[in-house]
Amino acid sequence: MHLAYPAVLAALLFCTGLYGVLARRNAILVLMSVELMLNAVNLNLVAFDVWLRDALHAGQALTLFTIAIAAAEIGIGLAIVLMVYRNRGTSDVDRLRDTAEGHEPAANNQSEVTA
Amino acid sequence: MSTTTLAVLVPLLPFLGAVAGLLLGRTAPGFVRPLAILPTLAAAVLAVVVAVRQGGGPAISTATELTPTGSVPIDLSLYIDGFAALVAVLVGVVATCVQVYSTAYLREDPRYPSYAALVSLFTSAMLLVVYSGDLMVLLVGWEIMGICSYFLVGHYWETEAARSASLKAFLVTKLGDVPFLIGLFALAADAGSFQITKILGTVAAGGLDHPTLIALLLLAGVAGKSAQFPLHTWLPDAMAGPTPVSALIHAATMVAAGVYFIARLLPVFAASSAALVVMAVMAAVTMVGSGLAAIAQDDIKRVLAYSTVGQLGYMVGALAVGDRGAAVFHLLSHGAFKALLFLGAGVIIHAAGTNSLGAMSRMGGLAKRIPDAFWTMTIALLALAAVPPFAGFFSKEAVLVAAEHTATGHSEFAPSAAGWLVLVAGLLTALLTAAYATRLWLMAFRGRGAAAPDHGKEPLAMTGVLWLLAIPSVGFGLAAGPIAGWFDGGELTPTLVTSVLGTGAAAIGAMLTYALWQRASAKAALVSAAGTRVAAAAGEPAAVAAAESAAEAPEVAEVTHDHPAVPAGPAADPGKAFLGPLHRHAADGFHLDAVYDRLFVRPVRAAASLVRFLDREVVDTYVRGAGTGTQLLGSLVRRAQTGNVQSYLSALLAGAVVLAIATAVLANVNAGS
Amino acid sequence: MSPAATLAAAATTGPGFLSPTGVEIAFVLVGLATLGAALVTVTTKQLVHAALWLVVALGGIAVEYLLLTAEFIAWVQVLIYLGSVVVLLLFGLMLTKAPIGRSPDADSGNRWIALGVAVVAAASLVWVVVDAFRTTWIDLDGPVQGSTKVSGEILFQHWVLPFEALSVLLLAALIGAIVLSRRNDPADASDKGQR
C-alpha cells in the first residue's frame, strides 16, 4: 500500500479537527475535535510504524500511550467544562472572556449566570 | 644614610604625617599636634641636611622606572640642584612655622585635625614638586596642591565667602592646569621623555619643535598657580581661608610652585623669545596692577595678597629676562618675609578683632598690645619695601639688576624689550610697594582713637615663630654673595644705579604716603570732631561721613573672616588721596571679576539656559513622543485582547502555518538551486 | 479536493496509483467515509449528532488500523474511544444541558477564520506529505506486526517503564477529574437549582 494514502488521510483529518477546534462554540464539541486531531496523529504513527517495520514498534506503543493520555485528557477536560458550566451557566468558549482587556471580573460573575 | 634616601624622606614624612593625622584625628586627638609638627619639622631638618650635602655642587639626579608606560616613560626620579635644595629648605621651614603657629591660632577649632593633616599634605606635595625630576610626578604634586588649597581655603565653609573663594581658587587654577597638562604632553612628545634632565638636554641640542607653543601653554598653568595676570583673581579671594594657610600658600607652596617650575625649565622658555616677551608683559601688568590694587584695599590680608601677586610679578619678571637665580633668590627672601607678614597679620587680627585697616586706624595703641607682632611686622614691611639692609632689598635688586642687564642688551637670549619692560615696571612697583607697606604700617599701628581691646598676651607658639622668621627677613640678603654659587653663578649683588633708583622710588613712595596720611588723619580728626558737635557748619559730606563711620563701628566685635566694605569717612587712609580717581577701580581689583563675569559667567549661563531650553522643548519632545507613540500602539494592540481563546488560537495557528509554508518553500527553493 | 485524485496525479513511479490493490481500494473507501464523518462532526448543528458522527469517524479509523495490520490497536481504539470516550462526551453534553435538535449558534463567529486556517494548513500539509511520500510503499506482507501477541511482547519487554508511568498519569487524571467535578458547597448548588 502507498504510504501516501494514510498520510494524506491523517493530514486531512487533522485539519478537520483543527477547523473544529477553531470554529466550534460548545466546549464539548471542541474536545471532540481535539479527539479527531489526536486520532489523525495516531493514524500517522501506526502507518509509519508499519512502513518502517520498527523492531521496538515504537509507533504502535506510542499510539497506545496516546490513546491512554487522550482518555485522561477527555476526563480532565470534561471535568473542567462541567465546573465552568456550573460556575458560569454556559459552556460556550467564546463567552468566557474574563481575560479581555478592560474586563471587570467582579461585575461579570453574576450577569453571566443568567445566560 | 645617602643623600638620595634623605631626599626621598623629605616629601614622604609630611605625607605619612598627613595620612596618620587623617586616620587618628578623631580617635586620638592627643596625637594630632605632634603628628602635625614633628614630620614637617623632620622634613625641614632633612631638607637642610640635603641642602648642606648638595652644597651647591653638581645636581643629584637619580631615576627608577616603576613600570613601563608605553611610548614616553614615566620615572620616579629625583633632581636636586641648588634651586631645589634651597627651595625645599624654605618650604620645610615655612611649613614648620605655619604648623607651630596653627597649634595656637586654631587652638579651639573643631576641625583642626583635618586642617593640620591637609597642611602636611600640602607641604608634602610642594616638596614633591621641588624634588621631582620627572614632570609627570611633578604634576601629581602640582594637582595635590590644587585640591589641598581648595580644602584649606574653604576651611570656614560655613561662610558663603569661603565656599565661593575655595571654588574660585580651584576653578581658576584648573583653568590654567588644562593648557599646562597639554603643554607637558607636547613637551614630552618633543623631548621623548618626562625627565627634566633629558628635556633640558633636548633643549640644549635644539631638539624642540614647537618652543613657543609649549612655553605659552606651560605659562598658562604657571599663571594660574602663581597668580599672574589674568588668572590672579583667586588669590585675593583665597584670604577667606585661615591666616596660616594664607601664609603657607603665599610664602612657600602654591604660588611658589609656578615660579619654581619656570625656573627649572627656563631653557625651554628661553628657547622662544616670544614667550619671554609675553612673560615680561604679564609680569609688568601684574606688578603695577597689583601694586595699585593693594593700596586701595581695606582688608589687611587682601593688601598682603595683592602684595604677593606683585612680588610674584617680580619673580616672573626676573625669569622673563632670563635670570632664574634672581627669581629664586627673590622667591626665598619673599617666602621668609611674606610668611612673617601673614603670621603677623594673624596676630594683629586676633588682637584688633577685625580684618579692616580702616577700623584699625581708629584704634589707638595696637602696637603696644602686641609688641612682638609690631616689631616683626615692621621688619617684614621694611623687607617688603626693599629698604637696604633687609632681605627684600637684595633680592629685589637682583631682579632689577638682571632686568637692567637685559635692557642694555647684555643678555644672550632674552630680548631687550622685555628687559626695559620689567625694569620700568619694577621701579614703578617699588614705589607702589613702599607706598602700600607704609600705608599698612601707619594704619595698623598708628591709629588714633579708642584703645584697642585687650585680648591678653599672644601665645609663645605664635610670637616665637614670628621672631624666628624675622631672622631671615633681616639677614638673608647678606647671603646674596655665597648663594649665587648655588644657582647659575650669575651675580646677585646690587649695583649702584639700580639700588639708587629702587631705593629712591621706595623712599618717594613711603614719603608721599606719609605726607598724605598726615593730611588724611588731620582731616579725619576734624571730621570726627565735627561729627560729635552735630553742627550744620560741618556740611553735608561730613555728616554723611560721620554716619558712615557710626554704621561701621559694630564691625569691631570679633574676628570676621569675610571682607568688610571699603571704609570711607574719617578713617585716615592715605590710599585714597594717593590714587585719586583710580581708587574706586583699584579697590575692586580693576573690575577684573566683573569682566570675567561678562566674558565667561554670563555667556556660560546663557548657553546653559539655551541648553535647558533645547533639552526641555526639543529633546523632551522626542522622549515624550517615544512614550506617547508606544502608548498609542499599546492601545491599538489592546483591542486585539478580546478574551476569546479561539481567536488567539486562530492567530497562533495561522502564524504557525505561515512559518511552516515559508520553511517548506525555502527548503524547496534551496534544494532546487 | 479528493485525496485519490491528487495522489493519482502525483503517482508516476513504483507500483502505480492507477492500478490499486484491493487493500488500497478498501483503505481509500473507508478513508473517504471517515473523512466525511469527521467533516459532519465538526459542522453539524445538532450537538448530539456530532457525537454520533464522531463514533463513525473513530470507527473508520479503527478499520484503517486493521487494514494497516495493527489489529491490537484497532481493538483498543474500539474499546476506549467508541466504548468510553464517546460515552463520556455524551454524558458531558447531557450534563451541560446541550440542546437536543438544531442549535443555530453551534459555530462561533470565528468560523471563517478557522476555515481559512484549516484549508491553508490542509493544503500545505497535503502538498508536503505527497511531495515527500508519493513513491513510498508499505509492504503489508511478511511477519505479523500488530497482533496482540506482538504488541504485548514489545509493550512488556521494551516499554514497561513508560507503561507504568502512564498508569500513574491515569491515576492522577482520575483523581483530578473527581476533585474538579465534585461539588464543594451543596447549599450553593441547591440555591442555584441548575441541576
Automatic annotation (TrEMBL), chain A:
The record lists the membrane-crossing segments as 61-85
Gene3D superfamilies linked: 1.10.287.3510
List the membrane topology term(s): Multi-pass membrane protein
- The EC number(s) given in the record are 7.1.1.-
Keywords from the UniProt entry? Cell membrane, Membrane, NAD, Quinone, Translocase, Transmembrane, Transmembrane helix, Transport
Q: Can you state which reaction this protein catalyses?
A: a quinone + NADH + 5 H(+)(in) = a quinol + NAD(+) + 4 H(+)(out)
So which domain of life are we looking at? Answer: Bacteria
Which top EC class is named for this enzyme in its record? translocase
Q: Where in the cell is it found?
A: Cell membrane; Membrane
Where do the record's region annotations for Disordered lie? 96-115
The protein's matches in InterPro entries, at most eight in alphabetical order, are given as: NADH_UbQ_OxRdtase_chain4L/K (IPR001133), NUOK/Mnh_C1-like (IPR039428)
The protein's role, per its UniProt record: NDH-1 shuttles electrons from NADH, via FMN and iron-sulfur (Fe-S) centers, to quinones in the respiratory chain. The immediate electron acceptor for the enzyme in this species is believed to be a menaquinone. Couples the redox reaction to proton translocation (for every two electrons transferred, four hydrogen ions are translocated across the cytoplasmic membrane), and thus conserves the redox energy in a proton gradient.
Family according to the record? Belongs to the complex I subunit 4L family.
Instruction: Please give the subunit comment from the record.
Output: NDH-1 is composed of 14 different subunits. Subunits NuoA, H, J, K, L, M, N constitute the membrane sector of the complex.
HAMAP family for this protein: NDH1_NuoK (MF_01456)
The protein depicted here goes by the name NADH-quinone oxidoreductase subunit K
- Name its species: Streptomyces nojiriensis
Encoding gene (name): nuoK1
UniProtKB/TrEMBL annotation, chain B:
Going by the UniProt record, its keywords in alphabetical order are: Membrane, Transmembrane, Transmembrane helix
Q: Name one Pfam family in it.
A: Proton_antipo_N
Which Gene3D superfamilies does its entry note?
1.20.5.2700
Question: What InterPro entries does this protein map onto?
Answer: NADHpl_OxRdtase_5_subgr, ND/Mrp_TM, NU5C-like, Proton_antipo_N
Q: Please list every transmembrane segment annotated in the UniProt record, as residue ranges.
A: 6-24, 36-56, 76-100, 112-131, 137-157, 169-187, 199-224, 245-263, 269-296, 303-321, 327-352, 373-394, 417-438, 459-484, 496-517, 648-667
Q: What topology in the membrane does the UniProt record assign?
A: Multi-pass membrane protein
Q: Where in the cell is it found?
A: Endomembrane system; Membrane
Question: Where is the NADH-Ubiquinone oxidoreductase (complex I) chain 5 N-terminal domain positioned along the sequence?
Answer: 68-115
User: What broad class describes the main subcellular location of this protein?
Assistant: membrane
Q: What is this protein called?
A: NADH-quinone oxidoreductase subunit L
Q: Where is the NADH:quinone oxidoreductase/Mrp antiporter transmembrane domain?
A: 132-403
From TrEMBL, chain C:
State the superkingdom: Bacteria
Q: How does it sit in the membrane?
A: Multi-pass membrane protein
What is the E.C. number? 7.1.1.-
Q: Tell me the compartments it is located in.
A: Cell membrane
Question: Looking at the keywords, is Flavoprotein present?
Answer: no
Among Pfam families, the record links this protein to: Oxidored_q3
Using the record, list the residue span of the signal peptide; answer none if the entry has no such feature.
none
UniProt record similarity statement = Belongs to the complex I subunit 6 family.
Protein name as annotated: NADH-quinone oxidoreductase subunit J
